[in-house]
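Box 4.2: Ligand-aware structure prediction
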Amino acid sequence: VVGGSFTAIESHPWVAAIYYQGRFLCGGSLISPCWVLTAAHCFADIEQFDVQSVSVYLGKTAINETDADREQHFNAEKIITHEKYHSSGFDNDIALLMLRSQNGGCAVKSASTRTVCLPPSDTQLPAGFQCSVAGFGKESFGAWHFSKYLKQANVKLLSKTDCTKELSYQNLVTENMICAGSPDWTSDACEGDSGGPLVCEVSGRMFLFGVVSWGDKCAMMNKPGVYTRVTNYNKWIAEQTGLKKYTTG
Ligand code: 4AZ
């Protein structure tokens, strides 16, 4: 995350940290005890992808430190990438990861670990609505390393008109995407935040409206972050997981 501020996992307890072959790969969001929602491009771009090399942590504030009291570790029982994901334009950039702990269980609710709500499919928030993105991604475009600690930034939803204007992304934004940025363009998701949450507070509850997907570099003028529009996937998520209802922990 560029700009914004450091935060503890307790403020974003649905944030998952996904590793591949021991290296940090992507963010994710816990939507039910056994399922993490993330981005398809996190896995689709890996050659000879090996699901056994995936590790997932919940309750983690520091990317390279073990916090045994607060974190929970899982392997990936399976990963489902959207069948219509297109790596060319990032359409349908969404994937589900099923958790399996060493003893065969799923996530246990705690101060550092909790599920996030999925908004009903007909929910439409107005342009300008303030939401928040969180992750361990780079603090500036071109940085060598990911952020050592979890960060969050407030960003505002953009209308499709604004996001597709000449100086912005023109025809690259599909109906399955939602754009968000900070009005002064100083805060944004960046490399490594992919798969992580864009959450918006409605009626005192936090809902997952976006999955970090793509953007032209990070925190550039007129180049907002582009997120997978989660409300377009309620049916897909229900079908793939067999879940019907989502509640906060
Ligand atoms: C990336 O490379 C990436 N500014 C993710 C988000 C954004 C840019 C790049 C949005 O994973």
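In the box above, the bound molecule is 4-(aminomethyl)benzoic acid. The longest strand covers residues 23-32.
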